[in-house]
């Protein structure tokens, strides 16, 4: 490539499908400076094999050539292959054919024919191996027709007779990837591949098992006949073979759990899943713990055996005296009665050799929890959790072992055990001795461990009043040591109160320190420990209304204060004559109100003044609805923002109308563009119709933006023009992918106008779209979608209302570290890397900080399901020069939507 700058030309094409016009943006690639014809010409004049190899390497480095040249180049490469004596050069040519299929648009069927033709006369195992590998690469990169797939399979089957283990290995790879799974002879292919599990070479044996697993993933029914072959391979000397065989044992146990097989050296039968479970347990040294959690159909006796290091019984069926006598009678032997114990069994049975459970299953999970490698311990905890979710009795049995993992030396293992216990909390009830071990971990230095324990304690149930008192006292003691855990402690005791209303009712006088005869001193409602107790009791009283009579007058007054300041922790109770606004506004009433509001706006579609007044009033009503009804806050905010964008478009459109000389407000234009960005990036769970409306209003806003900038002539119109083309291409692709929905008249006209422009420069685009923008009709309002969620953030630390002693003082010229904790709700996984922290100093200097991905972690729920709620926990560095007086520094949590543009989520 030369040092010259390559210009990218945007070309807009329009196609017709189902009477719809769709726009497609094509970015033309820069011209290729090197032709493959030059390389092939040099290859013909190469004087040695080494020179030819160097030329082939250069071709491999380029791999960007025009398609018309490829046919001639492939022909010349094949001709050079046939006359080349050095195997390394032939290997490189075959490798290039595979690269052509993966990196270029050249037809894979032609490349496959070339490779198959060249391999017919090939004798070098190294070259044949590369040819088979290239065939696999071609078939994976491009879909080959059935006739070519048959040729590839035939070539692979013929190559199995080779003496080279590499050739056999690649032939098995091709068979597993391309054998037809719908053919009746697929069982014969599986049997053919299975024969090579007894190969002398370990790599061939491993590939044979891997190919069988590949066929199983493609839909082939793997029969239980393969089980004995797989279990025999578990004793292989090579780990690669044992690994694949163990995976096959696992798959067979999952696919055929109820199939009965014979126990070795016995006439007893057992389920295949139980036998597979025992074999997986026996392979502990091969990191098999990750497989145990998937075998949920295993019997309870086998599960319990994994938690006991001693074999609980011989687990063999002992024959009665009559059965043994019957065997002697049928065999021609009988007791004469002349000798003592003449009827005793003559064979000697070893309990270790005849058992229904493999000895490796004894204490398998316990051994995994005690393993020196944290990967094994983590996999053991995860498998135990998955099995406990399916088998509630096993959850109670494994509880003590999970609690012991709270003392693990590695934080990630402790967190895994805490979250696993949280998931199975619905199956267990905690005893006092178990609580003591759990609560001792609450003093962990890691804030994530403490918050995880708060979540777990809120999800579990305790058995007695003493247990509940122990939980409350420990949470309050740790809160005095770590005051920053206040929010987490509130949530913990909130869930404790909801799950234990009866126990809380019995402890109410004691927790509130309410004397039956004397008035107690009024406690400080700002004390976090006292607030924790009130939060727990108020949530318990929601389920046990008789508790209200136990509350003293001061507690009732404190309820009103906490209900207003902490509505997310304190529920509605019938303690006041005034009913909360949030209770009279149900989800049904809010939705009905929203639908009525939008219907009124649609009714005023042809009356601009009435419609404008309705839009202004609707924004205020929707903002209030988002505050009083959290369930519909996302829908209300989305609708309010959409209507606000409509109102701004109407105002700006009136300024550019014919015979109008008004100057549009630049602030209004910037506000419109930011609203469109928020509609595109801050809302999730949108339907296809919602996305179409968002894209259409963004197209309308970008077209209006270009017209205003060109008319103003005070700034360059290149960026607005490129933005318009980008949005137009995006909406065109969206319409092409969703042919069941249609664009409105304005969008269709804009797309047609842009499609007619061969050279889309700002001036030409302006004159084409100006009449369309001036005569545009109002945008259609969205329909009610109650599933919409809006991405929001809340800074927990530093608190805006911090007291004087908690304020951070920055010395001029030095650096001060400030911990930042923020909760971000409804943030999509792909947006996590777009989070930004913006620090604004009093002199209007702004510093943007990119938090580390490991500082943004998902907030887990009691059920263990993953939701799009995240917690940002990081440290920001403040530094400034000399300042005359104390002032505030603003901190924002933002979302970067494109370079130089950030959407503010919250500030502190």
From TrEMBL:
Q: Does the keyword Hydrolase apply?
A: no
User: Where would you say this protein principally sits, based on its record?
Assistant: nucleus
Tell whether Iron is among the UniProt keywords: no
All residue ranges annotated as the INTS4 8 helical bundle domain in the record? 591-783
Which Gene3D superfamilies does UniProt cross-reference here?
Leucine-rich Repeat Variant (1.25.10.10)
- Per the UniProt record, one Pfam family is INTS4_C
Q: Which GO terms describe its cellular component?
A: integrator complex
Q: Set out the biological process GO terms recorded for this chain's protein.
A: snRNA processing
**Residue ranges occupied by any Integrator complex subunit 4/Protein SIEL C-terminal Ig-like domain in the UniProt entry:** 795-901
Q: Which ranges form a coiled coil? A: none
Q: Which InterPro entries does its entry note?
A: ARM-like, ARM-type_fold, INTS4_8HBD, INTS4_C
Name-wise, this protein is: Integrator complex subunit 4
Q: Which organism is it from?
A: Phlebotomus papatasi
Organism lineage string: Eukaryota, Metazoa, Ecdysozoa, Arthropoda, Hexapoda
């Amino acid at each position: 490539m030369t040092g010259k700058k390559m210009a990218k030309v945007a070309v807009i094409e329009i196609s017709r499908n189902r009477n719809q016009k769709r726009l497609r943006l094509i970015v033309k690639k820069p011209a290729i400076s090197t032709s493959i014809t030059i390389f092939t010409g040099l290859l013909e004049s190469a004087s040695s094999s080494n020179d030819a190899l160097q030329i082939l390497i250069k071709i491999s480095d380029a791999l960007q050539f025009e398609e018309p040249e490829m046919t001639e180049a492939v022909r010349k490469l094949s001709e050079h292959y046939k006359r080349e004596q050095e195997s390394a050069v032939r290997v490189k040519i075959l490798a290039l054919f595979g690269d052509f299929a993966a990196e270029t648009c050249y037809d894979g069927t032609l490349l496959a024919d070339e490779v198959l033709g060249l391999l017919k006369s090939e004798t070098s195992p190294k070259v044949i191996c590369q040819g088979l590998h290239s065939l696999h690469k071609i078939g994976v990169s491009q879909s080959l027709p059935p006739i070519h797939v048959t040729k590839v399979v035939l070539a692979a089957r013929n190559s199995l007779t080779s003496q080279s283990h590499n050739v056999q290995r690649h032939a098995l790879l091709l068979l597993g990837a391309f054998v037809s799974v719908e053919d009746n002879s697929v069982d014969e292919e599986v049997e053919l591949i299975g024969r090579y599990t007894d190969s002398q070479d370990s790599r061939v044996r491993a590939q044979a098992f891997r190919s069988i697993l590949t066929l199983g993933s493609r839909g082939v029914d793997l029969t239980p006949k393969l089980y004995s072959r797989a279990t025999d391979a578990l004793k292989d000397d090579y780990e690669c073979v044992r690994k694949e065989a163990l995976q096959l044992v696992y798959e067979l146990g999952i696919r055929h759990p109820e199939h009965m097989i014979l126990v070795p050296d016995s006439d007893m039968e057992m389920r295949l899943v139980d036998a597979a479970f025992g074999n997986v347990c026996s392979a502990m040294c091969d990191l098999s713990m990750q497989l145990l959690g998937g075998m949920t159909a295993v019997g309870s006796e086998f599960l319990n055996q994994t938690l006991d290091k001693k074999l609980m019984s011989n687990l063999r069926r002992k024959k009665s005296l009559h059965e043994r006598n019957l065997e002697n009678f049928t065999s021609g032997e009988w007791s004469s009665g002349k000798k003592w114990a003449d009827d005793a069994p003559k064979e000697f049975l070893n309990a270790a050799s005849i058992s229904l459970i493999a000895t490796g299953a004894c204490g398998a999970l316990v051994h995994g929890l005690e393993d020196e490698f944290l990967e094994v311990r983590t996999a053991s905890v995860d498998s135990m959790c998955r099995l406990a979710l399916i088998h509630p009795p096993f959850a109670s049995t494994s509880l003590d072992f999970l609690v012991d993992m709270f003392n693990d030396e590695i934080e990630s293992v402790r967190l895994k055990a805490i979250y696993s216990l949280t998931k199975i909390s619905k199956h267990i009830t905690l005893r006092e001795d178990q609580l003591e071990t759990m609560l001792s971990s609450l003093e962990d230095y890691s804030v994530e461990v403490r918050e995880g324990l708060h979540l777990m304690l809120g999800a579990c149930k305790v058995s007695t009043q003493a247990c509940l008192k122990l939980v409350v006292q420990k949470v309050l003691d740790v809160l005095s040591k770590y005051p920053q855990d206040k929010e987490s402690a509130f949530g913990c005791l909130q869930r404790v109160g909801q799950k234990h209303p009866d126990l809380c009712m019995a402890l109410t006088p004691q927790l509130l320190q309410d004397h039956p005869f004397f008035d107690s001193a009024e406690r400080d409602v700002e004390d976090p420990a006292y607030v924790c107790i009130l939060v727990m009791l108020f949530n318990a009283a929601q389920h046990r209304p008789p508790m209200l009579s136990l509350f003293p007058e001061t507690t009732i007054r404190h309820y009103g204060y906490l209900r207003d300041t902490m509505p997310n922790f304190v529920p509605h109770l019938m303690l006041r004559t005034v009913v909360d606004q949030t209770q009279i506004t149900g989800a049904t009433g809010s939705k009905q109100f929203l639908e009525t509001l939008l219907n009124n706006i649609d009714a005023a579609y042809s009356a601009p003044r009435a419609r404008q007044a309705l839009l202004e009033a609707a924004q205020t009503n929707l903002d209030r609805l988002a505050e009083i009804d959290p369930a519909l806050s996302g829908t209300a905010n989305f609708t309010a923002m959409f209507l606000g964008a409509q109102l701004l478009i109407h105002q700006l459109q009136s300024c550019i109308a014919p015979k109008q000389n008004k100057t549009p407000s630049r602030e209004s234009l910037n506000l419109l563009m930011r609203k469109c960005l928020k509609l595109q990036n801050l809302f999730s769970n949108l339907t296809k119709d919602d996305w179409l409306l968002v894209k259409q209003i963004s197209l309308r806003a970008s077209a209006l933006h270009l017209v205003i900038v060109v008319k103003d002539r005070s700034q360059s119109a290149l960026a607005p023009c490129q933005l318009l083309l980008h949005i137009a291409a995006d909406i065109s692709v969206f319409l092409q992918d969703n042919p069941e929905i249609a664009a409105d008249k304005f969008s269709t006209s804009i797309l047609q106008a842009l499609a007619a422009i061969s050279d889309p420069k700002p001036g030409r685009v302006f004159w084409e779209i100006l009449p369309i923008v001036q005569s545009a009709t109002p945008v259609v309002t969205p329909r009610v979608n109650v599933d919409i969620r809006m991405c929001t953030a809340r800074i927990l630390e530093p608190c805006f209302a911090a007291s004087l002693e908690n304020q951070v003082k920055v010395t001029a010229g030095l650096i001060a570290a400030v911990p930042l904790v923020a909760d971000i709700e409804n943030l999509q996984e792909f947006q996590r890397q777009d989070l930004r922290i913006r620090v604004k100093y009093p002199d209007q200097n702004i510093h943007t900080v990119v938090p580390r991905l490991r500082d943004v972690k998902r907030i887990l729920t009691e059920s263990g399901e993953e939701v799009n709620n995240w917690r940002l926990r990081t440290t920001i560095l403040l530094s400034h020069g000399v300042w005359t007086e104390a002032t505030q520094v603003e901190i924002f949590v933002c979302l970067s939507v494109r370079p130089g543009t950030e959407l503010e989520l919250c500030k502190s």
